[in-house]
Amino acid sequence: MKSLLIVLSTLFWIAFAQGPDKNGYRWIDSDTSAGPTFQWIDITGSGTRIELGDDDNQGPFYLGFPFQFYGNVSDSIRICSNGWLSFTSRSHQFHHYPFPDLHAPNALMGLFWADLDPSADGAVYYLADAHRFVVSWVDVPLYGTNDNCTFQAVLDSTGNILFQYLDIPDDFDSCSAGIENEVGLVGLGYFCDGEPVENYVHDSLAIEFYQLDNDVCPICIGRPYEKELAGIGVIPFVKVWNAGKSPASFPATLRIGQQYQEQIIVTDLVPLGDTMLEFPAWVPGTDSYQLELFTLLAGDQFPQNDTICSQTFASYLGEMRYDDGVPDTWFLRIGSPTIDWAAAVRFSSPYPEYRLLGARIFVLDTSVFERVLVCPGDSSGPDLDHPYFEAESVAASQPETWLEVPSDTLLSSSGDLWLVAFWPRRAPGPRIGDDQTMPIDKCSYFGSPSIRWISYNDGDIMARLKVDGRTGITELEPVKKLHSLLPNPFRHKLHLSITGCRKQRISGVIYDASGRMVRGFVLQ
Fold first, then answer.
1. Backbone phi, psi, residue 305, to 5°
2. What is the pTM (predicted TM-score) of this model?
3. How far apart are CA 61 and CA 124, in angstroms?
4. Most buried in the list 131, 222, 317, 399, measured by CB within 10 Å?
5. Which residue ranges in the chain fall short of pLDDT 70?
């Protein structure tokens, strides 16, 4: 049985070796338990022969029914001599590509995409009826060889696609098999140039590409991040996806450690649609936590993808940030006539008292910022006249990395903090990392103190502040009492009453319960 590879992501789509791709397509083969059974359909007597030459593409050929493929409905298809079908392409490309790929042809089903020559031998046939469309390459040789190939594609009216291989040269790997959409951005590959090795195309193999009616799954835990500040409320964001062809209503549950578990009901999520969920705030302690996100759909046809897990660690020493750590694009605003054009990020002070250890900005290149500073402010803008620290003419040591601006400043404040980076006048850089993946916190700005600050709502500028909330004297390891001895005569007060003695000097010694002398005394 083939193993199912699950890749857990904190950011984007979950990908399976067997799918689903972003349109919900999956594959399963006859080498897999519960896969399709190889049953060759001989159409050499009942089908129509196509006179295909070398590197030839003909059609359109009518299917006999409407066929939905990656959201588009077609009633006809084109057939290429080189082992592939397309709903749109007139190409005769014999160089095969992996799936998906932006190069033409697209809207593609590649059964055995290789350099084939039906003009030298063999034939290609098709058969259409009300429920299925079959195309067979029969004894067609690889170009310039005597190695003949026999394989076929079967499209049925439900939208499923079946590839079958009757006779394939042993250990031949200069080919690819898979499907992709009309622009080559989304697709699902089965085999290409020897990879993966367990998917070599061989005799008596059947591969089915299909979609499920009912399947939902979590696809990422956007927040908490892998590191968070202890004692600060975190709003968890997650994304779930309907990978099926039917609308779905279901609960999504987030569990963090042993104390936090919350559930949100998702209602009528559209087929192949995803949605971001915002859970109630969670306040971490100084510890590491296991995060588990799971969905529970009645009648789910693929429960194997219902759970994803990740971890987060919380400490008083950490970073304030809004980005997920991955730049989707690069932020730059130039062309202003002013000399003080800048990007800024507004943070809230994490603790009543803390130490500000520095700033970090993710940059594309090693261009120089005129100055970088951290200052107080409010929602209307930064107070640039009273910076907590400031650095001039700073740049990253290498491209696509974090520019580090160190500091060591003790702050006692509950207001806003602004991290501001000024570009040189009309400079084409540095370009700052821009995280446009949801959620977007809308705490990024650009502008000028001499004009105005403009809220940037398309993404989160990748700029962070490093802080340490451990200030003052802290008892790291409390002293443990090993034992307590009673009575202790000097815990409070000791009253002695001596009678029957007059005009005598009296001395004595007081011991504790363990027999140790506490002190002596003399009464005059």
1. -105, 20
2. 0.76
3. 13
4. 222
5. 1-17, 335-338, 472-524
